[in-house]
Amino acid sequence: MNYIFKISFLAKLLPIVGLCLGLATSGQAQQRTAKAIDGIIIKVDNQIILRSELETALAQVASEGQPITPELRCNILRSLLTNSLMLARAEIDSVVVEEDQVNSELDRRMAYFVQQIGSEEKLEEYYNKSLRQLKDDLRRQVKDQLVLQKMQSELTEKITVTPNEVKKYFNQIPKDSLPYFSTEVEIGQIVKLAQIDKKEKDKVRARLEEIKKRIQNGEDFATLAKEFSEDPVSAKDGGNLGFFKKKELVPEYEAASLKLEPGQLSDVIESQFGFHLIQLIERRGEQYNTRHILLKPGSTDLDMEQTAQELEKIRNRILADSISFAKAAKDLSDDAATKNNGGLLPNPQDGSTYIPLDKVDPGIFFTIDTMKVGSITKPLPYRTEDGKQAMRILYLKSNLAPHQANLKDDYQKISAATLNEKRQKAMNTWFNKNKSTVFIDIDPEFDACNILQSINN
């Protein structure tokens, strides 16, 4: 089984994800930290693997119902080693990801954590840390995952499978070992973000201009940031963002900041996060420190109504057969994650479009529960993972009854498994070729796993 990437990053991130979901206590987190100090089990150049990472990965697999066997333990350890080897090779080969990509992913994840625990205040209280500190804790891990994804993509993105390969793969599975699938559904969505009215934007801009005048007339920037800024991470610090390098903040913010002299105020500028009033605090070589006051224009009922009307027009076109749901999603949906897949929601377990009914998000489940296959909902209020207000329509494409795996109904899943196996063979070849190019030290406790032996393809 291919645990590479998924297991490694879960092992690094689950202490944080677990807390957000109420799966661990702060005391347990402290115990993990204390254990990790002397818990190094593998070194790969500058990369290390902690015993706690292996244990967390095993716990994740166990939570999915798999028995923990010695063979599974060794397989997961090999996956952790492979990921560390890839990170070490990425450093040698100068494989990098842009900081704005890291920042964007951090913002997305923090928005998800906040959504899971209920509010920013609860998240900060749970950790006894600010959102800014939590982001700093996660930054290295998120960056490593993005580098791993980039490395994996370069190694496997051109690999494809043919129908004959899929059939051959399926026919090699013993009949008594074919999986049994419970009820599964395919669900599509078309999302439209609420378009904020120009008048609302003008109101926000005017509020910031008034705050700017108050600062110019002698009031303290930090005090006003604490009172008015809608950036919860920096507001508590008087709007202070700390030092950043070029390309680490959104382009509009950076461009305005770099034009300033220390103490100078910017014009009101707009970014994807809202409207900013910026003050440069200090330059230090290639780094700069700013503080800002952020105001976000809100969506009015009228904005949401107009967005719903736009979606209703799209829905009517689909129902009149003037456009397919898939094409409408591709051309018109604002959801980047699903628009190029016909609007279909992915199964988080295997990436296919078939989702077990018991794994469907409760908010969607109770909507589709009484729907007929082929039907489309009226526009429904929706909030994206990063907290933006939107509307969406949901489409029930299929509803597959419980059955034993077969090529006709499950070709997509079997094709994905075939492709996964082919990609794993490519990864095995890469591992065999590169394992001798870096320093690797493995705790003798794991000698029985023999994880440095060449992997058969």
Automatic annotation (TrEMBL):
<feature type="domain" description="PpiC">
    <location>
        <begin position="182"/>
        <end position="282"/>
    </location>
</feature>
<keyword id="KW-0732">Signal</keyword>
<dbReference type="InterPro" id="IPR000297">
    <property type="entry name" value="PPIase_PpiC"/>
</dbReference>
<dbReference type="InterPro" id="IPR023058">
    <property type="entry name" value="PPIase_PpiC_CS"/>
</dbReference>
<dbReference type="InterPro" id="IPR046357">
    <property type="entry name" value="PPIase_dom_sf"/>
</dbReference>
<dbReference type="GO" id="GO:0003755">
    <property type="term" value="F:peptidyl-prolyl cis-trans isomerase activity"/>
</dbReference>
<protein>
    <submittedName>
        <fullName>Peptidylprolyl isomerase</fullName>
        <ecNumber>5.2.1.8</ecNumber>
    </submittedName>
</protein>
<dbReference type="Pfam" id="PF00639">
    <property type="entry name" value="Rotamase"/>
</dbReference>
<keyword id="KW-0413">Isomerase</keyword>
<keyword id="KW-0697">Rotamase</keyword>
<dbReference type="InterPro" id="IPR050280">
    <property type="entry name" value="OMP_Chaperone_SurA"/>
</dbReference>
<feature type="domain" description="PpiC">
    <location>
        <begin position="285"/>
        <end position="395"/>
    </location>
</feature>
<feature type="signal peptide">
    <location>
        <begin position="1"/>
        <end position="29"/>
    </location>
</feature>
<dbReference type="InterPro" id="IPR027304">
    <property type="entry name" value="Trigger_fact/SurA_dom_sf"/>
</dbReference>
